[in-house]
Design goal:
Strand order of the largest sheet: 2-1-3-6-4-5
Structural class: alpha+beta
CATH superfamily of the largest domain: Hypothetical protein ph0010, domain 1
Strand content: 25-35%
CATH class of the largest domain: Alpha Beta
Number of domains: 2
Protein name: AMMECR1 domain-containing protein
Number of helices: 6
Order of helices and strands: HEEHEEEHHHEH
CATH architecture of the largest domain: 2-Layer Sandwich
Pfam families: AMMECR1
Shape: elongated
Distance between the termini: 34 Å
Largest sheet: 6 strands, antiparallel
InterPro entries: AMMECR1, AMMECR1_dom_sf, AMMECR1_domain, AMMECR1_N
Number of strands: 6
CATH topology of the largest domain: Glycoprotein, Type 4 Pilin
């Protein structure tokens, strides 16, 4: 696996530095190979979605994770920008996307295994796209049709959804490597690696977040 806990730590570093006005963290040690990637933030014990944005264009991981950490935390239109007081309750997931395959049948993918990206023409004649990462359908308990229909609504399709319309969808399936870290795990990881990595900002004090 390419994805690592260090990538999630880097995302936390980037967000922490941004929210507290510190200089951005130094170049990380993990690979800088290009991958399509998503950064997902969840919050609280029930792990509610707090932001999730990424790109299907392969980006070098150092700049890509830096960019999408802040985009997903601050610019996901479904949520207000993240604040300092939310940090201690956050979970960060990094997903690196692989194995893209265009399929002829919109049902030709496996729940819990594949992420899907759909392209469709909406009722106004405009081309739209939308995606769910591999874990979404399984977490929601959806079957293929429920996932497709939810994705159409996510993509802004407002007309009634018929089976004939579903057959016009262009679907790409893909897989992902995913790593998730809680804020507490990030703190523990940073305490352990602080001196080796030369982080350019003070560690968040534990008592501040008790």
């Amino acid at each position: 696996m390419v994805v690592s806990a260090e990538m999630c730590c880097f995302c936390f570093d980037v967000l922490y530095c941004h929210l507290y006005g510190y200089q951005q963290p130094r170049t990380p040690r993990f690979t800088n190979e290009p991958y399509p990637l998503f950064v997902t933030w969840k919050i609280g014990r029930d792990k509610r979605l707090r932001g999730c944005i990424g790109t299907f264009s392969a980006m070098n991981l150092h700049s890509g994770l830096r960019e999408y950490t802040l985009t997903s935390a601050l610019k996901d239109s479904r949520f207000p920008p993240m604040t300092r007081d939310e940090l201690p309750r956050l979970f960060c997931s990094v997903s690196l996307l692989t194995n893209f395959e265009d399929v002829c049948d919109y049902l030709d993918w496996e729940v819990g295994v594949h992420g899907i990206r759909i392209e469709f023409i909406n009722e106004k004649g405009s081309k739209r796209t939308a995606t769910y990462l591999p874990e979404v359908a399984k977490e929601q308990g959806w079957d293929h049709i429920q996932t497709i229909d939810s994705l159409l609504r996510k993509g802004g399709y407002k007309a009634p959804i018929t089976n004939e319309f579903r057959k016009t969808i262009k679907l790409t399936r893909y897989r992902s490597e995913k790593m998730t870290l809680s804020y507490a795990e990030y703190l523990a990881h940073r305490q352990h690696h602080h001196f080796q990595n030369g982080i350019g900002h003070p560690l968040p004090p534990y008592n501040h977040y008790s």
